[in-house]
C-alpha cells in the first residue's frame, strides 16, 4: 500500500502519456474579451416585482425634488435640498448644519448595516432589485427590447447587415437612452438647487457652467454604466460580490438550483414519458438554458451559487414557465437555504427558515442603537452651537498695569429664526474679567454678544487676569454664554495662558 501510494504520485511513463486535448499546447489567455449579454425578457412574479420597484424608485428619484415644505419667509421651500452655497441640508422638517456631520456618519452606518442584514437574510436582493445600477440598467434593457426586439431579434440585428433598418433602430435606441440619461442628470442636480428656479434658468438658457457640467457628467455616467457597462459594473467594479461571502451562512436565502432533482440534464425527447426519463437516470432539467438566457449577468445558476449572481429571481420565472409547459412542478430553481437543500437532497424534511439567528440579531441591534441615537439627537438638538478659538500669536499679553490678557474668537451659530443675545461670563483665574473687542458686543462686567438669525456670528473677546492673581502656565477657562430670551446657558472649555 505504501509503494502504491508513492507510485501514484509519479508521472506516467513515456510509453503511456497522459491524454491531452489538441489545444493543450497553447496556453490559455489570462484575459478574455467581453462577450455581450443579450438578456431575454422574463415573465413571472419576480419580473413583476422588479418592474414595479423600477417604476416606483425612478418616480421617487425624479419627483422628490419637486415636493414643497413651508419653512417660513426667506427660507427654501423644497422638501429635500442639499444647499451647498449656504451650507445647509434640508430634509423636510430637519435642518442640518456643517457641525451636524455626525448625522451623515450615522446614516452611512445604518445603510451599511442594513445592507449586511439584507444580505444575511436573502443574499444580494439589494443588488437584484433596488441598486441604482440595476434599476437604470433594467430601464435601458426595456427600451432596447421595445425598439430592437427580444433576445433573438437583437442578436440577429447585431450580426446582420448594417443597413438602413439597423441604423434607424440603433439611432432611435441611443437617442432614447441619452434622453433618459439627461433627465437623470437634471434630476440629480435638482437635489442641490431649487428645482423650479433652475428649470426657469434652463428655459432662459442661463444654466450656469457648474450646473451644466454636473448635468453633463451625470448624463455621461448614466449613459455609459446603464447602456454599455451593465453587468460589468456588478461583477468587476462593485466590491459587494467579494464581501457578500462573509455575510452569508447556511440559513441565508439565495437563488439555488436543486441539482438533486434536476440532474442529469438532457433534452426532453418527443413522446418520452417521465417514467422512461426517470428510468434512464435523467432529472427534471431539460437543458433548455432558459435560466441562462434571462440572466442579466449571463451566468448559469445550475453551476451553483456564484459571485456574479445578483439574486434577481428571473431564472426562477424562466424555469417555472418551462416546468409548467412540460407538466412538471415548479421550484426547480428557487429561493432556498443551503441547509434546506442539503436536507432535501437526502430526502430529509428541512428545518423551517430561521429569520432570527445570531448575526441577524446583531445587525438589528446595531441598527436599533444607531437609529435610536440619531433620533434622540434630533429630538434634543440644540438651537445654538458655540465654539471658542484662542489666539496663538501672541499666546498672552502683559499689560502696563501688570494684568495678563488672552484673546479668543467666539463663534455663535444661531440656528433659530430670530436674533438672539448672549451674556458672556468667564470662570477660571481668580478675578478674571472679559470684554468684547471692536464693538462686537455691549461692554461691561458681562458683555452681551449678539447673533443674527440662521447665521454664524463671530466675536473677538479679551479675558484679563489682574496683576497679582495666582496664575502660572496654563489654567482651565470656561466661557459661558447665557441666552437672554430664556436663560439657557452654553459652556465652552478652553485654557488661559500666563508666564
Automatic annotation (TrEMBL):
A molecular function GO annotation: 4 iron, 4 sulfur cluster binding
Stretches assigned to the 4Fe-4S ferredoxin-type domain: 276-304
Alphabetical keyword list: 4Fe-4S, Electron transport, Iron, Iron-sulfur, Membrane, Metal-binding, Plasmid, Transmembrane, Transmembrane helix, Transport
Transmembrane intervals: 49-67, 101-122, 175-193, 205-226, 361-380
Keyword Iron in annotation: yes
GO cellular component: plasma membrane
Entries under InterPro entries matching the protein: 4Fe4S_Fe-S-bd, 4Fe4S_Fe_S_CS, Cyt_c_oxidase_cbb3_FixG, Electron_Trans/Redox, FixG_C, Helical_ferredxn, Ig-like_fold
Compositionally biased spans, kind Pro residues: 10-20
Region (Disordered): 1-28
The protein, known as: 4Fe-4S ferredoxin, iron-sulfur binding domain (FixG-like)
Amino acid at each position: 500500500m505504501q509503494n502504491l501510494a508513492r507510485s501514484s504520485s509519479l508521472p506516467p511513463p513515456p510509453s503511456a502519456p497522459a491524454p491531452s486535448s489538441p489545444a493543450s499546447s497553447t496556453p490559455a489567455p489570462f484575459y478574455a474579451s467581453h462577450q455581450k449579454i443579450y438578456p431575454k425578457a422574463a415573465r413571472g412574479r419576480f419580473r413583476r416585482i422588479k418592474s414595479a420597484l423600477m417604476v416606483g424608485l425612478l418616480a421617487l428619484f425624479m419627483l422628490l425634488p419637486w415636493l414643497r415644505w413651508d419653512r417660513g419667509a426667506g427660507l427654501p421651500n423644497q422638501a429635500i435640498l442639499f444647499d451647498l452655497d449656504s451650507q445647509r441640508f434640508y430634509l423636510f422638517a430637519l435642518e442640518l448644519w456643517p457641525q451636524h456631520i455626525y448625522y451623515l456618519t450615522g446614516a452611512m452606518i445604518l445603510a451599511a448595516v442594513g445592507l449586511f442584514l439584507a444580505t444575511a437574510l436573502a443574499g444580494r436582493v439589494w443588488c437584484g432589485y433596488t441598486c441604482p445600477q440595476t434599476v437604470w440598467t433594467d430601464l435601458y434593457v426595456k427600451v432596447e427590447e421595445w425598439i430592437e426586439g427580444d433576445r433573438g431579434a437583437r442578436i440577429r440585428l447585431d450580426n446582420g447587415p448594417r443597413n438602413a433598418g439597423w441604423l434607424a433602430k440603433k439611432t432611435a435606441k441611443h437617442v432614447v437612452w441619452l434622453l433618459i440619461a439627461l433627465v437623470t442628470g437634471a434630476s440629480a442636480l435638482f437635489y442641490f438647487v431649487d428645482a423650479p428656479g433652475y428649470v426657469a434658468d434652463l428655459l432662459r438658457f442661463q444654466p450656469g457652467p457648474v450646473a451644466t457640467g454636473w448635468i453633463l457628467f451625470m448624463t455621461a455616467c448614466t449613459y455609459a454604466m446603464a447602456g454599455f457597462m451593465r453587468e460589468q459594473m456588478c461583477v468587476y467594479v462593485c466590491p459587494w460580490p467579494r464581501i457578500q461571502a462573509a455575510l452569508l451562512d447556511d440559513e441565508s436565502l439565495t437563488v439555488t438550483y436543486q441539482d438533486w432533482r434536476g440532474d442529469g440534464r438532457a433534452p426532453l425527447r418527443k413522446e418520452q414519458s417521465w417514467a422512461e426519463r426517470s428510468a434512464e437516470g435523467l432529472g427534471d432539467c431539460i437543458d433548455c438554458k432558459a435560466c441562462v438566457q434571462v440572466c442579466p449577468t449571463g451566468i448559469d445558476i445550475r453551476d451553483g451559487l456564484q459571485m456574479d449572481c445578483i439574486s434577481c429571481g428571473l431564472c426562477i420565472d424562466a424555469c417555472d414557465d418551462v416546468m409548467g409547459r412540460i407538466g412538471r412542478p415548479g421550484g426547480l430553481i428557487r429561493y432556498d437555504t443551503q441547509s434546506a437543500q442539503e436536507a432535501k437532497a437526502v430526502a430529509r424534511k428541512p428545518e423551517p427558515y430561521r429569520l432570527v439567528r445570531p448575526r441577524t440579531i446583531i445587525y438589528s441591534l446595531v441598527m436599533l442603537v444607531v437609529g435610536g441615537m440619531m433620533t434622540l439627537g434630533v429630538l434634543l438638538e440644540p438651537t445654538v452651537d458655540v465654539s471658542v478659538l484662542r489666539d496663538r500669536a501672541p499666546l498672552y499679553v502683559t499689560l502696563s498695569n501688570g494684568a495678563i490678557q488672552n484673546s479668543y474668537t467666539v463663534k455663535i451659530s444661531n440656528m433659530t429664526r430670530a436674533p438672539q443675545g448672549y451674556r458672556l461670563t468667564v470662570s477660571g483665574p481668580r478675578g478674571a474679567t472679559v470684554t468684547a473687542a471692536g464693538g462686537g458686543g455691549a461692554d461691561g462686567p458681562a458683555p452681551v454678544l449678539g447673533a443674527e438669525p440662521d447665521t454664524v456670528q463671530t466675536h473677538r473677546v479679551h479675558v484679563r487676569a489682574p496683576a497679582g492673581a495666582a496664575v502660572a502656565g496654563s489654567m482651565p477657562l470656561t466661557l459661558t454664554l447665557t441666552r437672554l430670551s430664556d436663560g439657557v446657558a452654553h459652556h465652552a472649555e478652553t485654557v488661559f495662558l500666563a508666564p
